[in-house]
Amino acid sequence: MSTDGQMDAASIAAAVAGGRTSARTIVTEALGRIARCDDRLNAFTDVLGARALARADAVDAALRGGDTAGPLAGVPFAVKNLIDIAGLPTRAGSKINRDRAPAAQDGTLVRRLEAAGAILIGALNMGEYAYDFTGENVHDGDAHNPHALDRMTGGSSSGSGAAIAAGMVPLTLGSDTNGSIRVPAAFCGCFGLKPTYGRLSRAGSFPFVGSLDHLGPMARTVTDLALAYDAMQGPDPDDPVATTRASEPALPILESGLDGLRIAVAGGYFARGGDPDAFAAVARVAEALGASRTVELPEAQRARAAAYLITAAEGATLHLDRLRTRPRDFDPAVRDRLIAGAMIPAPFVERAQRFRRWYRAAVLGLFDSVDVILAPTTPCRAPEGGQTHFVLDGVSLPVRANIGVFTQPISFIGLPVVAAPVWLDDGLPLGVQVIAPPWREDLALRVARHLERIGTCAAPIAELP
């Protein structure tokens, strides 16, 4: 059974568990596709062929011995290089971190995926220290969009989006502080899940902004997102932020349909300041769901500003020693923003945090009358590589600072979101955020699965030249 590494995770696991193929065959084909494709995409920073094949052999041996290999049996996956991999320094997209000692063990989510039968195959490119929306990296080189090699992948989980879109692996892990899963999902045309803040452990990952950081999966199907999400849930004593809530599996209710769900479209701030196609994508999704109601998130523009301020201040605090001792080893664009963050007066940060508490309560009040809210993911399609500005409503705006205009007000208060890809008419995707109340990832996944099933949202593998 030949797969060329391009089957979805659920199909791979079923085929491996059913004896129709082997984990070694799956991993070998995935490694071959990486070797054929990644010189054009630069998605991977490390390929772990020997480790992956040894793990595949262990999965196959367990199955031959009559054991079960888990719901992700034989599924290759790769992780953003800010997540610990035993034996590798955790780069976080930087030059400085290459001097760190290799990680002594895998991060919690890597261990949980492998416990479910998945097979780690490599580490993925990213924006430096996750402070990036473009997918460009001055140290490791830029990742390239598989659907248009001259376009950005989006960041900071750039390699995570590119590897999925190119079919090199069916499952990746990324991180999302202000939009770093959702933006590359939109630009690369795949599905991404930013869970509720605290839902998935961050232990064994390099931080950026502790009060905003999330880890989550990216995939070509919503079923694969749910499989990975279910495998990674659960409290973790090594992560003080991780919830002690019991796991709440999403996969069993994925096909439950939309009966009774109250779905609304975000208006106001989320209906302006973007390319018309960004709003057309939301309108297409809303029509497919029969969603005609509009709600307005109060003070969303101020929420974005407060998220920016907290990001800059917390990120700068984390990197103060590196800024003092090795300023020339940063990407200048990242360094300068961190230096600016270090100069923000403490009362400004305190005021932003007070506003954050008010904003969270106000937004959660909306979910008394709706279950899911739709919003654009990005204000435009993927810009060209190296592009520094784009024009919206006649105004030239910096790309790096403004790609997250619609994602930041959502992650600011830790809401769960599925980013779903929508294709209009020019061969490049856009994204729609399916936003749910805290701890209700199942609702966002159900809606995204329905959109996938009826063909409104899809994540095709790119045809590379």
Provide a brief overview of the structure.
Helix content is 37%, strand content 14%. It is α/β, with parallel strands linked by helices and 465 residues long.
Describe this structure in words.
The protein has 465 residues and is α/β, with parallel strands linked by helices. The chain has one domain: Amidase signature (AS) enzymes (Alpha-Beta Complex), CATH 3.90.1300. Helix content is 37%, strand content 14%. It is built from 14 helices and 13 strands. It has an 11-stranded mixed sheet. Helix 8 links the parallel strand 7 (263-266) and strand 8 (293-295). Helix 5 (158-165) runs parallel beside helix 6 (182-188). It is globular. The model is unreliable at 1-5 (pLDDT under 50).
Features:
two-stranded antiparallel ribbon; alpha/beta; globular; 465 residues; Amidase signature (AS) enzymes; eleven-stranded mixed β-sheet
First-residue to last-residue Cα separation: 25 Å
- Could you name the CATH topology? Amidase signature (AS) enzymes
Q: How many individual β-strands?
A: 13
Class computed from helices, strands and strand pairing: alpha/beta
| Arithmetic mean pLDDT | 96
Strand content: 5-15%
Overall geometry: globular
CATH H-tier superfamily: Amidase signature (AS) domain
The parts where pLDDT drops under 50 for at least 5 residues are 1-5
**Any guess at the CATH architecture?**
Alpha-Beta Complex
N-to-C series of helices and strands: HHEHEHEHEHEEHEHEHHHEEEHHEEH
Reading side by side through the largest sheet, how are the strands ordered? 1-3-2-4-6-5-12-13-9-7-8
Calculate Rg over CA atoms. Answer: 20 Å
Helix content: 25-40%
Biggest beta-sheet profile: 11 strands, mixed
Number of domains: 1
- The number of helical runs is 14
CATH level 1 class label: Alpha Beta
